[in-house]
Amino acid sequence: MPEEYTIATFNCENLFTRPAIFEETEEKSKELLHEVDLLKAELKKPVFDKSEIGRLSRSLAGFATINDIRGKAASAKGAAEWLGYVSLEKETLDDAAVDNVARVIFDLDADIIALIEVEDRITLQGFHNDILNKKFLRPAGKKPYPYIMSIQGNDGRGINLAVMSRLPINWMQSHVHERTEKNYPLFSRDCLEVNLALPGTRPLHLLVNHFKSMGYSSKDDPQGNRRRLVQSTRVGELLNSHDLSEEYVVVAGDFNSPSTSPSLAPVLENTGMYNVNEELPAGERGTYRTGKDQLDYIVVSDALRKKLTSVRIERRGVYTARGERYPTVTSRRTEASDHAAIVATVAV
Prior knowledge:
By secondary structure, this protein is an alpha+beta fold. The strands form four sheets. A six-stranded mixed sheet has the order 7-8-6-1-16-15, with helices on one face. Strands 9-10-11-12-14-13 form a six-stranded mixed sheet. The chain has helices spanning 26-42, 50-59, 96-108, 121-140, 222-239, 265-268, 302-305; strands spanning 4-15, 17-19, 64-70, 83-88, 90-92, 112-118, 147-151, 160-165, 169-173, 191-196, 204-210, 248-254, 273-275, 296-301, 308-314, 341-347.
């Protein structure tokens, strides 16, 4: 008998950590930052005052730490015998908006989730352990996500792609190194390929994308459309290396354009691929803010299209004047994201 698996994509809108110092009161934060400066100054001196370094280190426990690169600050006589730096300790934000991100993921209950706008794997692992699993999954008796992966992409702000999965990851491939003809990074973030094991059947091959943003662009976004066309063309080339009639292939993520945009044609008009939102009525396919525009996608190969059993959009994490939302989503400040999530179920 076929087993059902769910695949989701969700732009969780900047799931980042924050230095623990900034979670204190303003007065306490200023005091701690001053002690960080004092510790950095002590570690630059030709002769260390070990007692003062020890005092500052104890005072900053949980907020800042000394990272040794060569030699050890604890045993060095002075700066000439040691190389390193002071870093701020980070923690996952304990915040209503972050809780609502977890609430969306909990209600998706997907086996595989493509996540957009994540800082890094450590941040996502912390979010999973301390918020998603602790507050939502475990109390409800739902399975956690043992396979959590992310690769640093091209965005200098640390806006990256990630995958959380209940199914084992066979292998991953980044395309962060690929360049355009003008020697610019081809992908704004990455095209993250993840090959996942489906029990007793062929693997599922997932390509996670976050195409060029429409933000900060001129009217009709001509430059962004050109960038997105280059990116989707490359994804189309990767798709052509698969037998889409037989292989389970999924392209998922935030494509930053409506489905009618020519910039997405290499993916959406590929005859072997299918935009699962077309399973829904035309007026219910939107994923951004009010639901008017579809910017987020799960596009499946013909082999998986035949296995589709359901498609839905989870909108309750978005704050809008009309429409159902979680009671905890009371404003744009507390919303999970300005993007709704898509979840598709297949029986394979």
